[in-house]
# Entry
Amino acid sequence: MTVSLKSKINAKINLIRIILGVIMLVFVARLVWLQVIARDKFLAAAERQQNHIIEVQAERGKIYDRNMRVLAEDIDSYTYYLVPERISNKRAVANKLARITGKSGWLAKFKRHPRFLYIERKTTREMESKLESSGIKELAKFVEPRRVYPNGKLALAVLGRVDIDNKGLSGLEIQYDKYLSGCNGKTMLKRDGLGHCYNFNQQPVIAPDPGSDIVTTIDLNLQQIVEQEMVQAMKDNDAVSGIGLFLKAGTGEILACAVLDSLGKPATRNRAIADQYEPGSTFKLITTAQAISSGLFEPDDKIYVEEGKFRIGRRTIRDDHEFDTLTVEESLVFSSNIAHSKMALALGDEVLFKAIKEAGFIEKLGIDFPAEAPGYMTSPSWREHYLANLSFGHGISTSTLQIASLYGAVASNGYLYKPYFTSEMISPDGSRSVVGRSCKIRKLYDTNIQELLKRMLREVVEVGTATKAISRMVSISGKTGTALKVREDGRGYDHRKARASFVGYFPSDNPMVVGIIMFDEPKNSRYGGETAAPVFRSIAERYYSLPEFMAGRYVDNTNYVEPEPNASYASAGQTDEYARVMETIEPYHELNEKPDEMPNFKGLTVRQAIRLASMVGVEFKIEGSGIVESQSPRAGAKLDDIKILNLRCDVK
# Structure
């Protein structure tokens, strides 16, 4: 009995030992599982519970203008956040945040993001003050860089903008994003065992590397002048939009680029580079240059311009003035559609297509800017009417950049240059590297053709369609453009809607700056000579008078001769031709003594007569060419009673 009881007790003890042994083995196995086999998994889980990794944004590089004035930079700002699961009274906090930020739905956000929630990132001083005085004790903050533009929206279409994470969205900000943005770092939010609070480490886990700075070709002074003048012109002309683009002659450097919307405010889309449009009469330079360089025409060759109406099949091409004949040179000066149509028909589609392609109108020029428009034109084998339209800038799509670059070739020894915005990059260690430099694409015109075109473009301003670009401060050369817009239904052109432009350069005798001004659907006048030319003149005068520009003339133009302070208009950089014209006009021009009477036009050339008629301010019609033989109404008639002036010339 005693032995049997003892055996039973021993058996139970052994069972207990076995059970305890098994339990110990389970604990040991669990410990081995936790500490050895699944160690990394549980360490990661612990870190996720205790730590929250936040990306530390690198300081984005600065953007400078050509004179090292800051256009864009980063400044320190506060970012505010909450840990919603630690908020004692979520509804009260949500109501306060709604009043401060003007945003709703905070309670729902607390539920979706219990462990970390941004309240306001990169706050302004005003928002910072509101949050600091909110009384929300759970609110915390840390420092982040915020992108600012010291000049406001100046050059907005060029610089572009960044998103909340300082990544480029448009303009130069996205073009050079990988250089400007640098490399972000990381830091850690920590919570204690009771989950009471989060704290940032004093130093980031991975330190951020700052981005590089870039130096642009933009001249802040000219950019300000262009935008100021265009804002006023937009108001005066009630235009849908406006573009102003200026380059340094002979280099391709872009000095200013302004794009304005219908309210006269800077636009985000850079339509000067990214959009295509029909250029109108500014395109006639291509036709004129090719007509002369081909040997088919000489500058003095006369073209019968049909007294303002020219039929091609069932289509009619019209001129604004009813001339009888014009020379090739006069055809550009007075912007004759008919004369250029006849030149194009003589050249043929293959020759004109090659000239257009050489001028860079159906290819990208390679500017360092996103979404450059290449231009568009159908292949040759054109119908006569299309070929005629093409000769004066209809039926082809170009950008303002391409037009400005073409005229830059006339101003720059006949070479077409690759345009660019950025000249240098400055690394965080201070070292500099060249990004963009002057690059010739190809030679468009030899010296003889180039000088001839320069003379013609000067005459356009002196006696042609751009007399409102005449300045007594700086000589200007250029060409006006009026491009009718296609009807909304695609059937022909809408004569009520047009793009008015003026493209040119200054000073005429020693070009330093090339530019274009264009207004879309100006209401006061559709003609570039009336709307764009005066704006170009104002910009040229203001920029020309700056001390920096005056100093630059001696650096870049060693042959430049400064005019005397009281020099006449003819001597202040103007051509001898203009002085001769003015001297011829002066004996007949009695406006100073009798401003209300018609002057005597007899004996004047066509150019002189047009110049004088423009000064008087009367509509006119000229028959023939050469010297004015008669006029109607007669000299001395009251100007108020005159509707149109008819001039008849000797066709010799």
